[in-house]
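Table S2 (text version). Query chain:
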Amino acid sequence: MLFMMIVKASKNSEAENLPSPELMEEMTKYNEELVNAGVRVMAKGLHPSSNGLRVSFPEPGGKPIVTEGPFEVKDLVAGFFLIDVKSREDAIEWAMRVPDPQGNGEGQVELRQVF
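Corresponding structure-token output:
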């Protein structure tokens, strides 16, 4: 079963503030655990929304509209892990083990199954 652990953005990640060296070390260890367990398919961080854009489709059949970032932080993604596990419960266990990805108590990880 494929699951995506979506790391939500924060004001710090959008400001391109790097995590502390200690948090970077914790994340490296966590990634190694995922790899050693044979469940990690991919893990990547994303550039802040100030480097991104959105394509929206406001009218059915109409022309798409491109909007340059930055965007409001509350709904943004800072990165993700794609894991292949045996069950939803396994995915939850891995999600519970993620170090606070933003530090400072700002981290949030959303878990979603992939079709």
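Notes on Table S2: The chain has a mean pLDDT of 95. The two ends are 9 Å apart (CA to CA).
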